[in-house]
Amino acid sequence: MEEGERIMGMEIRPVYAGESMAWLVTSTDNAPEVWTLNKVALIRSVRPVPCWKCGYKTIQTGLFLELAGRDGYRCRIVSWSGVDKAGLLSQAFRRLLDVNWGVRPKYSKSMGCEYLAGVCPHCGAIQGDNFVYGNCQSRGGAFSDPEDRSQLAAFPLPSFVGDRPQSLDWAFGRFTLEVEPRRIVFREPLMLPGGAWPWRMNR
Predict the structure, then answer these.
(1) pTM metric for this prediction
(2) How far apart are CA 121 and CA 151, in angstroms?
(3) Please, are residues 134 and 143 in contact by the beta-carbon 8 Å criterion?
(4) Gap between the Cα atoms of 126 and 187, Å rounded
(5) What does each C-alpha distance from 166 to 25, 36, 69, 115, 119 come to in angstroms?
(6) What is the tens place of the pLDDT at every residue in 57-97?
(7) Is the torsion defined by CA of 114, 49, 92, 181 positive or negative?
(8) pLDDT per position as a tens digit, 181-198
């Protein structure tokens, strides 16, 4: 077989001792991003946010993820609807979110479906993902308002993945956002009643 000969469209060439093998390395530019989960926590606004309907001061919450990827660290807040669609939440955690944080399944007329969302404890109005995480109509709250620099309290949770990097595409979906690390203040770990596990996955 001679140098330059092609087999099935591929050029065949010899390899010489001491030659750089850089041409063999496949570029990772188009490879899917994978992430290592460093921290996970329930995150809440320290500053109360008025309910859009009755003005009652509500607390916004979400799931905080600190991720390490090939381009560095990212701090993400994910809506409870996104976490729920990813199939992560145990029934014990869903009960705690309902009782302690007013997060429960609620039908949204604008979305045309039911999803897991924060609900005003005074009037029962859904605090929609479009506003809490998306700053719709410039009505964003403590998370999504780009002018808001108030502190966010994070209550650490056990990891739901092992040490192997994973894609975690749902952490970059529609109702997710980036948060500045300097805004986050870590508090005591969040413990579920009876030591229940927060995730559907096994320990």
Answers:
(1) 0.82
(2) 22
(3) no
(4) 27
(5) 22, 7, 10, 25, 32
(6) 999 999 999 999 888 899 999 999 999 999 999 999 999 99
(7) positive
(8) 999 999 999 999 999 999
